[in-house]
What does this fold into?
Amino acid sequence: EGMQTMSFYMYRAQNDEDYPLDSDNTASLEAVMWYLHNEVVVMSCPRHYDITKIVRYNVTMRNPDSAANSMHSQYGPFVAIDSGKCTVPDCEGIIEKRGYFVGCQVQYGKNYGVKAYWYSLLGACPLQPFSNKTDECKQEFPGGKCAEGQEPDGKNCTWSYEKAGEIQIAELEGIDNYKQFCSEGKKEYVESEDKGEGCSFWDDKMDAEKNAARVAAAQALFKKVSDAPLLTPTPLCDA
It folds into this structure.
């Protein structure tokens, strides 16, 4: 047993800007689709946070031996991160005890299957937001992110990544021109109606079969736009 080195895909919904993974929360594809369905497309034209795309990352991780609650788990606990800052109570104490771990949490009851997971990645100076991360803080609290070319070993660093493609949400929905779609007064998804207006992609939110088809459509689109390899299935979140 013990901690394994694992490589698999993590995902993030974001706007048109590109920024590197640092201290961040990411998700499995199922959880990112649930997030889009519940918090993003319900505020259509413009979408919540101006989100336009799903970005995929090939993440390699190996947690410190002190990270997990049980001998069998590969993960530490999930911690919420906002603007680069770990925001859970006593985050400093948790890191002191467990190291700069990769955490996960199952999103139960979300109708996007059993692999709807949130992840937390701890970068340098994780107790401060991006705007307050000084060089001194980054040196004193180096975080778990590996330097370029470094492999996660659970001691010097715990995670590395490379970008592995991105897809546009409008293309996934079958919308050719999102601005035009909005100007015509259409809606991706209206919660009170449980369907869209001029878009049917998100109809029937509680339908597990349709949700699985939405995830499959996103996987197929990633395959079309990126030649990144299919990795091992998402490892079980057993934190």
Remarks:
- The chain is about 25% helix and 25% strand.
- The longest strand covers residues 159-168.
- The two ends are 15 Å apart (CA to CA).
- The longest helix spans residues 208-225.
